[in-house]
Amino acid sequence: MEIDPVTTETPPDDVPVIVWFRRDLRLADNPALTHAMATGRPVVPVYIHDEGGTVRPAGAASLWWLDGSLRALAADLAAKGAPLVLRRGNCEAELRHLIAETGAATVFLNRLFEPEAWSRDADIAHGLKAEGVECRGFNGSLLARPGTVLTGSGGPYKVFTPFLKALLAGTEPPPLTVAPAAIAGIQGVASDSLDDWALKPTRPDWAAGFVGTPGEAGAMAALETFVDGALSSYSRDRDIPGVSGTSRLSPHLHFGELSPWRAVAAARAAAADGRVPGAEAEKFVAQLGWRDFSSHLLHQFPAMADRAFRPDYDAMPWRDDPAGLAAWQTGRTGFPIVDAGMRQLWATGWMHNRVRMIVGSFLVKDLLIDWRAGERWFWNTLVDADPGNNIQNWQWIAGSGADAAPYFRVFNPVTQGEKFDADGHYVRTWVPELRGLPDRWLHAPWSAPPEILRQAGIRLGHDYPRPVVDHGEARLRALEALRTVSQARGHHED
Question: 3-state secondary structure string, 312-348?
């Protein structure tokens, strides 16, 4: 269902328009805001915090970032002359209240493409249209809106590489726009206090160590830092968790503090100027393409939110292992690279991308725990938890997603640590009890001779846990479980 962009009557110049902010918390490159201002009418910016609707509520870590992002947006809008209105409750009800209070005749918004939000927005638009209020929707979050990148037969892509090729070849970049110098707003509209929403934890403040600067200015600073630094060696360093080799743009992109096309333009401009190799810029662009791929898949295949994209994988004999899950969640598995990643996540609200794959593989293959348990944990603990990315990435790890890694590819957490954290910087940062262990033994402390452990001040099972599984045995167990999937596949094919 689409939001109708057509209106039959032009309201008077003094009738305000509403800009409904969601995950587009920026003033530059914001098509809903740009089109609203083009009307020449007063603008009422609003953000509605709907915790009880049909759309999946944000996780606790995401709420921390949202608080900072809304504070930044409110300050930016106030400086331009249009105070941000904050409302909490049912989206449709609060929009109707605001329309009644202001006399607005048009609502401008940037679309959300995950299925629940998509359907909700369409229902709201149709209800308002019946009462003479126009809703105009735009794409402000993805490189291309779902449904516009299709195969030659008119269907959605299920393999990433041809999707990326079609996306980049067939999508015209939108014009980049700067933040307006001024916005004609309306003063005195009733608004909640952000403090009253209590989005940030206080007692205890478990987010005290979270990293990143929410808001549009923070996003632009992060983009500049990345382009001027890590982008030049992105394809190599992005896999090394102990160095700053990634963009760290994921929360800014999720909350819409930065347009993905702005990020593409910055990377390609750096390549055109000779500041970075062109191949490095395009490697980064491909990662933005993967983000689109994931969102397009979820939009077009809504069932993958809680079912395997490849139905035969719903037959996987997952284990009920509360103790194993708790050890994984708390970074107490006895495998240093896994524990480092899970502790980084808890402490900072973010985890390095390579390590996300390692800890994901450990959960679904070494522990044989359902990928949905991992997806739920990430949803609640990541500041950049994104519906499409989170679901698709977990299904990719589990072998059940589109263009997924094969299930029989089981990451060895020891060799992964030795390869990508060879100097041990990452593990020693997040698992400090192992700092005194020599590199040779760091990623498999149980294999160290007793004298080496004694010298490092480590008592296995006391200072640091023994491994919760034997990786070799766990791998064989995972491959045996795969036979169940293969049998189910045969039944499907029959």
Answer: HHHHCCCCCCHHHHHHHHCCCCCCHHHHHHHHHHHHH
